Amino acid sequence: MPMRILCAPFYNHFVSIAEHVFRFACVGTWAAIVVYRGSLRRELMKEKFQSFGKAMLVPITLIAISGLFLGIGSVFTTELTLVSLGVNWDWYAASPLFTFFSVFKGLGEVIIGNLGVLFAVGCAFSLSRKEKGWAAFSALVCYLTMLKTVEILLGAAGLAADNTTVEALQKVGLTSIQASEQSALYTTSLGFFGYSSGVFGGIIVGCLVAWITGRFYKTKLPTALAFFAGSRTVPIVSLVAGGVLGGIMYFVWPVIGGCFSGIATFVKGSGLVGTFVYRWVLESLVPFGLHPLLETPMYWTELGGSMVVDGTRVVGNSAIQLAQLASPSSDKLLVRAFMAGYGINDYALFPGIALAMWSCAKPQNRKKVAGLLIPTVISTVFFGVTEPILFTFLFAAPWLYFGVYAPLSGLGEVLSEAMGVSVYQGNIKDLIPFLFRPEKLNLLPYLILLPAFFLAAFFLFRFFITKFDIKTPGRDDGDDIELINSRAEFEAKAAEAKGESGSTPEKAVQGRATKDSALAVGIVEALGGADNIDDLDNCISRLRVIVKDGSKVADDEVFTKNLEAMGVIRLSDKAIQVIYGPRVGEVASEVHEVLGDE
User: What are the Cα distances from residue 214, in Å, to 41, 53, 121, 394?
Assistant: First the structure.
């Protein structure tokens, strides 16, 4: 009998003490960061957070599609659903249709069931500025090595998949609670028995390999070993790093896992007050692009809670809801998943705010403002892309966003939870898979909540806009949206902006500018030229840029007036975000082409 299991009560006591130490260290570290006044350190942190938020979108993009596959596939492979529709189950289960939809469902399950490795590869690829292909390959090597190392060390301690189940642990004398807590630490991933590190383990590997890539991709070796030099050094170092990380995880993860469970317990026990604070803080992080730091762990880790679905323990509120979607049972989706607030935002608050801005525009400008706002509302309702409408009023009056919109969003989350709304996300794209399983949804409270919050947003924003004369679109006679059609036109506009603001792009990009690439050329010049751009990528709605010299970047007006941007966020002197809304992918591709990126 494994000694570690027999000593579980003492071990749990040690973990409890270690948790308090760990939490104290976390709080102390956070306090030190807040107190620290060094401007360089703050800028570096903002740049890193910006890059990290961008990296989270790589695997999350795939998760959104896999959820659609999982939803559709589960509908047409669930006996209860099909029998209720009058389908002969015995005939259907042996038909090619059942096989087809089983494959369809499997396409979703293979993503949801392997989030750890996907986050490892995705983060390494996105965070690495050079040799992204080698970084992704090395992340896979590092992740597999980490899993194997943990499995070997656990095996040496007498632990395996068959003796760490709840039933097996209860047989050796642990109480049901102790057995559940102990068993929750373990899982089998990619065929390796180990800790339930999941997404966090993947993120750790991805960040580590990104650092290794940047540090070792130019490594020079003696002639006899030259074959292993350069980029080939990265997977070799990652192989060793995975073993070291696995050894560290073996000792540290029980403490970290216990800490996550403690935080989840706090969130669960904080009631509606915690729900309000969570949503308010989350929305307040959106303008800075930092919301994935809070949102992703809640979706896919212990921080979002855990639940046993069809005999399998699932962690993270989003993962739980997707598992519930695939389940043949008719149980409702998890209510306290912090999802219903998205519906309040996308279906009520933002459309109400848009209508308020339109109604406050001068009559002669309303048609033009409608042309601006209608596409943004559509992108919000159908695809959940909120930045276009959000930044339309954020830059005009930041207090209106943080002091009115964010609290309204928090209140919407609270009332949705109190009234038992069961829903996944808050836009039509993400809701489609769940419409095939309507018995799992509870949307009736929305019939009251959505009109109420739409009207509240409309009247509150209309009052504040007119009361404080906030310059939302269409409230100035001179409001106009100028589109740039050529490089010559951009240079003329930039020269005009220079005379007004004293700041203009200083370096040009070589090459012939066509009509399609003129905007990209202008963006590169506004960022100080190709030589000034250290890193450029995009998320759902923004270009995320790291420049070498912030003084060479044009003023915000050059981007918004001449380069079709909806707004500019300067996280620091070197970390800049330029908002383009749903079309940002096309814009980013054009910019990369101008820069000559492969």
Answer: 20, 19, 15, 36
Positions marked catalytic = 539
pLDDT score of 236 = 95
Contact 108, 319 (CB under 8 A): no
d(CA 182, CA 167): 11
Question: Which percentage of the chain shows pLDDT scores above 90?
Answer: 23
Length of the chain: 598
| pLDDT one-digit tens code per residue, 257-285 | 666 555 555 666 778 888 888 888 888 87
State the Cα–Cα distance between residues 474 and 361, nearest whole angstrom: 4
For the segment 276-301, the average pLDDT, to the nearest whole number, is: 74
Which three-class secondary structure state does DSSP give residue 199?
helix
Q: What is the pTM of this model?
A: 0.57
Rounded Cα distance, 495 and 504, in Å: 7
* Helix (H), strand (E) at residue 357: helix 350-360
* Domain definitions of the chain by residue range: 3-37+113-269, 38-111, 340-467, 487-595
Task: For residues 319-332, give the mean pLDDT.
Answer: 77
DSSP string, 174-185: --HHHHHHHHTT
Instruction: Return the axis-axis angle of helices 198-216 and 292-300, rounded to nearest 10°.
Output: 130
**What is each CA distance from 290 to 88, 296, 582, in whole angstroms?**
50, 11, 19
Report the range of poorest mean pLDDT among 30-39, 70-79, 283-292, 507-516: 30-39
Q: What is the CATH number of domain 487-595?
A: 3.30.1360.60
Terminal CA-to-CA distance of the chain, rounded, Å?
A: 56
